[in-house]
């Protein structure tokens, strides 16, 4: 286990001290793991207090939602363990006045027992208390009665509604009814790609196969209701929302708020993809999404996966969701983009009108297709190399390059310069990172170096190749020995010129260029990198050839094979 902690025994207290240090609106009770608002007025002036909590490990819940307009207090237990009755009671005493307190409890036995007993003790002290239990997990619809379902991430939306209602000054009964009604209509369901690791345990709670996922799990590291093979994000989102519809929760014409929640280790990139799929599914189903958020709102430590929560809303609920709060974890916003989501590109210069295809242009088109296929086939090799010393994306980038080149028709190659410019424009659009600009710049420089209206000679091609290498070197600042693609390009260009100067036939001269490029690429394994991401690794990159230089050697060889045909 690798975690940024000090001692598993003190992890909750250390975490809470960090949370309140970063939130001027919150303080931590001295003897209990309870975070309360720092602006609590005298008892007589207090509005209805809204409290929630549960085991730790769900951050930013629950302490992140303490602040005006949301929770008055959050009570934290040990990781995935209900807080004690005394801790809950201390929280009630700290924030409740004559207006009373509402406890929002997720439907787990420990939470219900400890929050419920604390409520009874507070009532005995004369503090009015209401309890609302959230049981929103529709994954259990075929397993247990509705009242026994788990409470999961949708609980955050109930916090917000109740907190805003309390901030309005509504009485306890009204605040509780708003929360209770919302909880009854709330639906959530989660999917996990892997397990989480409890600090005190040190190993994952379960093990999944490489292609397995858990469907319909809770928020405490437990397994789901079933396992299934991994599927595309769109399909998994459809599975979750279909389950909600089967539970009677998503009727056409209904208006809802959508919460796309990460379980702790899900990148925002993936959550945005999930949100896209959910919004599209709901639109197709005739469900109107009034508000939507994507992020990590209630997690399960470091679990990879997501949950969706859908809450029916009316104008009053929307006003409460939109109401201001100082709680740091509430995401704000939530309004959807009313504009068309795909704006047209600005007008671009029209490509030159193609005329007849010259023999040299047709040959270049054929060569380009051979190069493209070679790059696509080399994806595993390039990905593995780039994963060692770079960011692992070169194989995918070269695959996109190959696919884009294959999509070019022969009419893009009326002459050799026109064809090179067409490939340059295609690669510029198809490849991100550094490869796109490098290759586009080199091809554009080469095109300008060639005669425009006649078939280029071998010496014309050699001069154009050298000009392309110069352009790439100028753009990136790389020189021979820096351990970059230039270490494959420069020796190849020089070998081509040298062989022609010795009187070699064009095919033999190119074979010399291919061999020089291959040797240059192999030599990078013994070079200490001075540019690019590999330079951050220093000596750790030694022993592995540069992926960019290897890619050069691959397409040089492909050109040789195509030319020989």
What does this structure look like?
The chain is α/β, with parallel strands linked by helices and 565 residues long. 44% of the residues lie in helices and 13% in strands. The chain contains 17 helices and twelve strands. It has helices at residues 11-21, 85-95, 109-124, 155-167, 172-185, 233-246, 268-284, 315-322, 359-377, 379-389, 394-406, 416-430, 435-449, 458-476, 486-501, 506-523, 547-564, and strands at residues 26-28, 34-37, 49-56, 73-79, 101-106, 129-134, 187-192, 212-215, 226-229, 255-262, 288-295, 305-312. The chain has a six-stranded mixed sheet with strand order 1-2-4-3-5-6, sandwiched between helices. α2 packs across α3 and α15 packs antiparallel against α16 (506-523). The longest helix has 19 residues, at 359-377. The two termini are 57 Å apart.
Helix content: 40-55%
Separate helix tally: 17
From the spread of the alpha carbons, the general shape counts as elongated
Q: Report, as a whole number of angstroms, the end-to-end distance.
A: 57 Å
Largest sheet: 6 strands, mixed
The strand line-up of the biggest sheet is 1-2-4-3-5-6
Query: Rg to the nearest angstrom?
Result: 31 Å
Key structural traits:
565 residues; alpha/beta; 6-stranded mixed β-sheet; 12 strands; 44% helix; elongated
Secondary structure elements and their pairing?
Layout: H1 11-21, E1 26-28, E2 34-37, E3 49-56, E4 73-79, H2 85-95, E5 101-106, H3 109-124, E6 129-134, H4 155-167, H5 172-185, E7 187-192, E8 212-215, E9 226-229, H6 233-246, E10 255-262, H7 268-284, E11 288-295, E12 305-312, H8 315-322, H9 359-377, H10 379-389, H11 394-406, H12 416-430, H13 435-449, H14 458-476, H15 486-501, H16 506-523, H17 547-564
Parallel strand pairs: 3-4, 3-5, 5-6, 10-11
Antiparallel strand pairs: 1-2, 2-4, 7-8, 7-12, 8-9, 10-12
Helix pairs in contact: 2-3, 4-5, 6-7, 9-11, 9-12, 9-17, 10-11, 10-17, 11-12, 12-13, 13-14, 14-15, 15-16, 15-17, 16-17
């Amino acid at each position: 286990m690798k975690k940024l902690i000090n001692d598993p025994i003190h992890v909750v207290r250390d975490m809470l001290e960090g949370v309140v240090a970063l939130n001027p609106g919150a303080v931590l009770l001295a003897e209990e793991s309870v975070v309360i608002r720092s602006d609590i007025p005298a008892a007589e002036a207090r509005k209805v207090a809204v409290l929630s909590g549960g085991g730790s490990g769900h951050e930013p819940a629950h302490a992140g939602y303490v602040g005006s307009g949301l929770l008055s207090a959050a009570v934290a237990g040990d990781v995935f363990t209900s807080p004690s009755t005394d801790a809950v009671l201390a929280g009630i005493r700290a924030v409740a006045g004559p207006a009373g307190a509402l406890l929002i409890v997720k439907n787990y036995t420990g939470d219900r027992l400890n929050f419920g007993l604390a409520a009874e003790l507070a009532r005995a002290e004369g503090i009015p208390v209401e309890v609302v239990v959230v049981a929103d997990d529709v994954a259990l619809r075929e397993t247990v009665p509705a009242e026994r379902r788990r409470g999961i991430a949708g609980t955050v939306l109930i916090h917000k509604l109740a907190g805003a209602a309390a901030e309005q000054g509504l009485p306890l009964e009204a605040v509780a009814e708003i929360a209770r009604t919302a909880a009854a209509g709330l639906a959530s369901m989660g999917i996990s790609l892997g397990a989480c690791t409890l600090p005190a345990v040190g190993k994952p709670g379960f093990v999944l196969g490489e292609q397995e996922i858990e469907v319909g799990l809770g928020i405490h590291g437990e397994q789901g209701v079933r396992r299934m093979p991994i599927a595309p994000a769109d399909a998994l989102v459809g599975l979750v929302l279909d389950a909600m519809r089967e539970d009677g929760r998503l009727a056409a014409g209904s208006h809802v708020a959508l919460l796309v929640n990460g379980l702790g280790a899900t990148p925002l990139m993936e959550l945005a993809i999930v949100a896209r799929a959910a919004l599209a599914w709901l639109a197709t189903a005739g469900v109107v999404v009034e508000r939507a958020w994507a992020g990590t709102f209630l997690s399960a430590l470091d679990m990879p996966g997501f949950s969706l929560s859908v809450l029916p809303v009316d104008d009053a609920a929307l006003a409460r969701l939109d109401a201001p709060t100082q709680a740091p974890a509430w995401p704000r916003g939530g309004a959807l983009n009313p504009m068309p989501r795909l704006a047209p590109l600005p007008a671009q210069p029209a490509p030159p009108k193609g005329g007849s295809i010259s023999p040299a242009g047709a040959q270049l088109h054929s060569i380009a297709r051979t190069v493209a296929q070679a790059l696509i086939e080399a994806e595993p090799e390039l990905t593995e190399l780039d994963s060692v010393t770079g960011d692992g994306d070169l194989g995918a980038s070269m695959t996109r390059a190959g696919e884009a080149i294959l999509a070019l028709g022969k009419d893009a190659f009326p002459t050799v310069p026109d064809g090179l410019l067409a490939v340059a424009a295609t690669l510029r659009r198809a490849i991100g990172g550094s490869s796109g600009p490098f290759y586009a710049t080199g091809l554009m420089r080469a095109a300008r170096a060639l005669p425009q209206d006649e078939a280029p000679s071998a010496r014309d091609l050699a001069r154009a190749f050298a000009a392309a290498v110069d352009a790439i070197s100028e753009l990136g600042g790389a020189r021979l020995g820096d351990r970059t693609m230039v270490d494959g390009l420069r020796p190849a260009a020089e070998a081509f010129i040298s062989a022609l100067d010795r009187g070699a036939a064009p095919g033999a001269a190119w074979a010399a260029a291919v061999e020089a490029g291959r040797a240059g690429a192999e030599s990078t394994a013994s070079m200490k990198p001075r540019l690019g991401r590999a330079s951050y690794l220093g000596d750790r990159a030694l022993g592995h050839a540069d992926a960019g230089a290897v890619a050069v050697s691959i397409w040089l060889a492909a050109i040789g094979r195509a030319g020989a045909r």
